[in-house]
Amino acid sequence: MPSPLNISIWWNIGSILGVLLGMQIITGILLSLHYTADLWNTFNSIIHLMRDVPSGWVIRTVHANGASMFFLMIYLHMGKGLYYQSYILQPRTWLVGVTIFLLSMATAFLGYVLPWGQMSYWGATVITNLLSAIPYLGDSLVTWVWGGFSVNQATLNRFYSFHFLLPFAISVFVLIHLLFLHDKGSSNPLGSLHHGTKIPFHPYFTLKDLVGFLVMGLVLFTVVFFAPNLFTDPENFMEANPMVTPTHIQPEWYFLFAYAILRSIPSKLGGVIALALSVVYLYFFPLALGLSSMSTSFNIVSQYLFWSYVVTFILLTWLGACPVEEPFISLSQPLTVYFFVVPLLYMVSGAMLKKALF
């Protein structure tokens, strides 16, 4: 398909995400051949995989670190969409992309529970128990998710089943995502779909994508071979023990921004609502349709808001990894407010620019 001549390296990330998704599915299937979803044998099956299965440790560390690489790339991909306002140019593509993001978060959370280490067990207990904040239905929902009155064998079975199935659902949405993308074609750094010059995708962008794949592979396998436990919590090297609570319970790094938002609100129900809105609000960006179709590159105010939003996201991620104590809670509260206010200001600034120009 002919593509704009001036698209930059930021347009490589989508294809990198496709490769990473395929890698996660393949390594996940290989891991499932040796995994045992049984409370008494799950942790030992992981040890057997790491120590006794030929190249088993490589498969598992590629899968675990590949999830971190996937979310790093998906955050960069969404950041590109926000900066160049793809949610206005291609709203259907954006909405399907947000759905892929939410399904990926669900898949990653389910997978984090499967090793049945201390942090896996207590992370599942704390996060699923948040459903109890929902009025009237909360306790019933928690019991339904657990399959009982605590995290148990039924919980592990259903988490394993859904973790295995959801990546294939994500693959379907990826195809829909590409279908909508090809309906109008790629945007460009000018924030427009009206291209003056296009060139064939192959060989120009094929070679560019291959370079992106090589760089991604170099980073991923450097982590796998030299720091395979870089993103692993030390608590997860111990088998799950319902009688011993870890000092500091936290999710994986790519969920920490939402975890910081949850902790910053004293009300449990308010925290759960804010947690949900921190990701669901992405669906509302296409409502800015008609406000602006100008790239952030042409608006200094939008650039300031965008980069301050990125800094806020990074700070919330750091605060989510800090202990639940002062001053970290107080610091996260104004950042949480800013996290929700900036998108509104971002869209308004684009509307003001369009009004000034036209």
Report on the architecture of this protein.
This protein has helices at residues 13-32, 42-51, 56-83, 86-89, 91-113, 118-129, 138-146, 153-184, 204-226, 256-264, 268-280, 300-320, 328-357; strands at 3-4, 198-199. Strands 1-2 form a two-stranded antiparallel sheet. The model has no long low-confidence stretch (mean pLDDT 88). It contains 13 helices and two strands; from the N terminus they run βααααααααβααααα. 65% of the residues lie in helices and 1% in strands. With 358 residues, it is mostly helical. The relative contact order is 0.14. α5 (91-113) packs antiparallel against α8 (153-184).
Secondary structure: elements and pairs:
Blueprint: E1 3-4, H1 13-32, H2 42-51, H3 56-83, H4 86-89, H5 91-113, H6 118-129, H7 138-146, H8 153-184, E2 198-199, H9 204-226, H10 256-264, H11 268-280, H12 300-320, H13 328-357
Antiparallel strand pairs: 1-2
GO cellular component, one term: respiratory chain complex III
Subcellular location: Mitochondrion inner membrane
Membrane topology: Multi-pass membrane protein
